[in-house]
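Why should sequence recovery work at all? Because a backbone constrains its sequence more than one might expect. Tight turns favour small or flexible residues, buried strands favour hydrophobic ones, and helices have their own preferences. The token representation captures these environments compactly. In the example below, the structure is given first.
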């Protein structure tokens, strides 16, 4: 019963976090199937012809950043870029890799309350998609 209650609390807390912040990311290593912790991730907004950094964080032990959008900023529609610093992460794990970073450009159009960007990585490839 204790584990069930703890799981329910943990799930509720995760749901609450997602409901509060409109952007999350998740990084998984395809080579071993494990989460990629300590990946540096940069969030930028496109303003005219340039990109402006609005936040930066590192993935947690589960490979997640549950609140990447700045807490003190209203969600603005527009074009954004999340850049995963994968080359640094692979170097820290004594692995060579082909892609020094993975930029993911996407649109926040207000159609949903929460945007989630999963990234699946390996030393010589990656995949991403719009999650939920």
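From this structural description, the recovered sequence reads:
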């Amino acid at each position: 019963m204790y584990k069930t209650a703890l799981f329910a609390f943990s799930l509720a807390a995760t749901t609450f976090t997602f409901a509060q912040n409109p952007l999350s990311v998740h990084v998984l290593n395809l080579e071993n199937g494990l989460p990629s912790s300590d990946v540096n991730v940069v969030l930028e907004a496109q303003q005219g012809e340039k990109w402006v950094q609005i936040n930066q964080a590192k993935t947690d032990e589960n490979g997640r950043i549950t609140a990447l959008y700045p807490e003190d900023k209203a969600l603005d529609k527009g074009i954004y870029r999340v850049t995963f610093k994968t080359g640094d992460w692979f170097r820290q794990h004594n692995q060579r890799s082909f892609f020094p970073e993975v930029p993911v450009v996407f649109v926040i159009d207000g159609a949903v309350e929460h945007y989630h960007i999963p990234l699946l990585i390996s030393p010589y490839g990656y995949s991403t998609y719009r999650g939920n």
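A few observations help interpret the result. Residues 2-128 form a domain with the Immunoglobulin-like fold (CATH 2.60.40.180).
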